[in-house]
Amino acid sequence: MCGIVGFIGNNKKDAKDVVLSGLKKLEYRGYDSAGISLFDQRFETFKIYKDFGRVQKIVDLTQKVDPSSIGIGHTRWATHGKVTKDNAHPHYSESKRFIIVHNGVIENYEELKSQYLKNSNFYSETDTEVIAQLIETFSKSFNVETAILTTLKLLEGSYALLVIDTSDPETIYAAKNKSPLVLGKSKDGVTIASDLMALVGYANEYFALVDHSFVVAKAKNIKSYNLLHEPLQMNYLKINQDEVSAELGTYQHYMLKEIYEQPSVIRRIVSKYVFDDLPKIDKQIINQMKQSDRIYILAAGTSMHAGYVGKRMVEEITNMPVEVHIASEFAYHMPVLTRNPYFILITQSGETADLRACLLKVKKLNHPVLTITNVKTSTLAREADHYLELFAGPEIAVASTKAYIAQIAVLYVLANSLTDAPYDVKYELEKVAKSIESFLDHQNLANIAHDLFLKRNCFYIGRDIDYYTALEASLKLKEISYIQTEGFAAGELKHGTIALIENNTPVIAIISNKTIAKNTRSNLKEVLARGAQTLIISLEKTSQPNDDIILKDCHELLAPMVTVVPTQLLSYYAALERGLDIDKPRNLAKSVTVE
Ligand code: M6R
């Protein structure tokens, strides 16, 4: 969701190359417009090149532009104002003295507009432009740093900002609250971006800006301040290029590549968390969890579905009660908590704004928080008491696949670390990896998808743990194929939704649990009787000869890791069949950094 990249250097590197290659690396976050501002040395002025559409458009637009030592760029995911060239970033202030790119949402922009900017003329409908206009207004009375600080103090909401004062082509100003921003440096200059990935190749070390902070960056001189203009410490860390970069290789799409990586992700997790055949998690985490009287799992989207599976595993393995909550609901309507709650935030990106809102509230109450994330350098990893890394490698496709598998695997290790009688985690997870591998080696789902998904809607059904897979399968299908899909508890369908079943409506059933397999099969009969076109995904132990997809057995608590894989591929092929942009589905972002 919105990407920012800025570069200021010593003339050895062209800012255009750094910024545009950074923006390309951030494309996976999801966006609808792009733009860049560069210094034109011949005319001694900054120019803006922007439009709706892909970064490639800006690459083409700027092909003949002379090299520049400074530039800022942006990919926009529309929040305020339509997807148009005027609303794309960068934005000017009224006199064009200041140029700005912004990620986040300024909640009080309308109040600020009517209080301070009644007489200003605006070029766009965005909340961002208000920031540029405020800086310009205050610059009439103060120096630039004070004008920016005065503006920042008025802003309510989230922002990662880069600002250029066109009368000073040697400085980039940066500021952050809630939305992520990292600054990297090398001998060639300073790169500032919303994601470490954009720094790869251009910086050797980086530091993450903290909330309510402000940076003044020159090619060889970087200063960081709080909003009182007091200097802040900058704690630089080394960039591990292997951990943050990701190449597509021979795959047509990242989603397909990431689906195929799942067995190796599981094995990596075992190598990181299992020693001498026993699950090993930081003792402090285990002690805090054991002292708590209830675990609260908070997450969004796919990560929340992993949370449901986690609840099921922790309750069955340890008998500890677990609640799962939608982050965006919990943040503003906290249920009555038990006396000693323990919080687990599950998040692939570690940047989800809804979860950050929860974290801030829970920390205010002094409760312990663990973040389970794929990005150990993320905000939610940094700000929780502890974090557990997913080790899934960068996940680029917007549709989460390998991170989901990794979340369940890590939750399984965690649940087993809480008990004196753990399962053989290494053996059970290896069985899962083998089952997925053997399915992927022989899968031939493209034809099934062709037949099934020319329809306008679809249902996934399952009971117990399979219900969670139905939810995840349905989210995956709708987000990349745009087919209206619902995931249902199989027994619940007959209480209303069965009214939607008509001739050839696809109903896909997941059957991994022996005890309730017959109940799901009866529910299938009910929809078959109404004309549904059914597809059955089962394990060997729950299968019947005519089932469509039969997967190798694994432990029943881990079945969601196996049964979800054919559903991921069905979604992939459905989107492929429809000729859609699989890795960057419309309207979606990889890191959802606004609430
Ligand atoms: O980075 P997070 O795991 O916190 O993201 C949560 C959701 O936005 C994410 O899972 C979303 O639902 C995915 N696009 C699903 O594929």
The count of strands amounts to: 26
CATH domain class name of the largest domain: Alpha Beta
Can you tell me the number of structural domains? 3
What portion of residues is helical?
25-40%
Low-confidence stretches are none
Listed once per kind, the bound small molecules are: 5-amino-5-deoxy-1-O-phosphono-D-mannitol
The main sheet comes to: 8 strands, antiparallel
Major beta sheet, strand line-up: 3-2-4-1-10-9-11-14
Q: Which descriptors apply to this entry?
A:
single chain; 595 residues; alpha/beta; Glutamine Phosphoribosylpyrophosphate, subunit 1, domain 1; Rossmann fold; 3 domains; 6-stranded antiparallel beta sheet; 19 helices; globular
Textual characterization of the structure:
Helices cover 36% and strands 23% of the residues. With 595 residues, the protein is an alpha/beta fold. The strands form five sheets. The chain has an eight-stranded antiparallel beta sheet, covered by helices on one side. It has a six-stranded antiparallel beta sheet with strand order 5-6-7-8-12-13, covered by helices on one side. Helix 10 packs parallel to helix 14 (402-417) and helix 17 packs parallel to helix 19 (559-577). The relative contact order is 0.10. 5-amino-5-deoxy-1-O-phosphono-D-mannitol binds at residues 300-303, 347-349, 352, 355, 398-400, 475, 479, 588, 592.
